[in-house]
Amino acid sequence: MQLSDFDYHLPEQLIAQRPLPERTGSRLLQLNHQGLTHGTFDDLAKQVRAGDLLILNDTRVVKARVQAVKDSGGTAEILLERVLLPEDGHVSTSSAQALCQVRVSKPLKAGRFLTVEGARIECLGRQGEFYHLRFPEPVFDFLQRYGELPLPPYIQRDGESEPDDGVVDEERYQTVFARNLGAVAAPTAGLHFSEAFLQELQAQGVEIEHVTLHVGAGTFQPVRREDLSTHVMHEEHYEIQPDVVAQIQKTRAEGGRVIAVGTTVIRTLEAAAADGVLTAGTGSTRLFITPGFSFQVVDALVTNFHLPKSTLMMLVCAFGGFEPVMRAYAEAVKESYRFFSYGDAMFIERVHV
After folding, report:
1. Domain total of the chain
2. pLDDT, tens digit, 9 for 90 and up, residues 60-79
3. Of 137, 177, 235, 278, which residue is the least packed, with the fewest Cβ within 10 Å?
4. CB under 8 Å to 138, separation ≥6 — which residues?
5. Neighbours of 313 (CB within 10 A)
6. Using alpha carbons only, how large is the chain's radius of gyration in Å?
7. Among 129, 146, 163, where does a domain finish?
8. Can you tell me the distance from the alpha carbon of 141 to that of 7, in angstroms, rounded to the nearest whole number?
9. What are the φ and ψ backbone dihedral angles of 121, each rounded to 5 degrees?
């Protein structure tokens, strides 16, 4: 398939600019083997059943955008991609090194410095499209002090601005179960869940587990080539605990379904099962899921509506079937659903190919 196959028309006014007052207040478009059903997000309680396993991504968004000054006097904007340990590349809360996007008028060279309120950040060189930077203290501590929330580029406002409705991005652009620092963007399907709704699902007999995939800024990078076979995915770090693997095996053995909350959970689980056996541990993935992909782990998906021609749109089409998903998106546009990070949601049962 080609990039243009995953395009669709989206009126600009359907791009959600703010979250709804209540996390569970969104609509839910349900796509299963019987077709499409319109509803509200709390209808998810009717779609899941006792014995199902809901898997959430517990990554936490950091204040990943920083305004800096070059040692030459020019301005620079730093956007974290991922934190590094020089020896193994794994995410660490104590690491002072990171890969970052840096917006500057001229490319930085190794040995140059960026300054933020007197604190100096050294450029150590390039790794592909990213700059390798060394901060004067642990990266997450630095960003907490000087950074700002990196709202997605299609939200046309400042994340630090005072809201009219009392809904604050710093609180609402995190899931209620976020705990592991490292993400540049929220796993947005999880934004719909309140603690009370999760407790309601558990009371129905639904099991809940967590994995971690730190969403990088690369998730917003457009696919630039029509031939999808030439596209290289951005790398993201993940972690799966052994008890999660055991719970998945138990769920399967007892006839329950594995339900991923978000495309990040699908990427995590399917990457860890790439050799045919789901394996616990820490790793990184460039997994690019397009129609024809053979899913090993996930049976159903809770997800938001994704950008035209994006890798996430391709993943959803692979999961729910290209034609059914494209029809669902056309219906969502027709019915004025809210799109993208702060938008409405879908529940999709996997198509079997």
Report:
1. 2
2. 999 999 999 999 999 999 99
3. 137
4. 93, 94, 95, 96
5. 22
6. 20
7. 146
8. 40
9. -115, 125
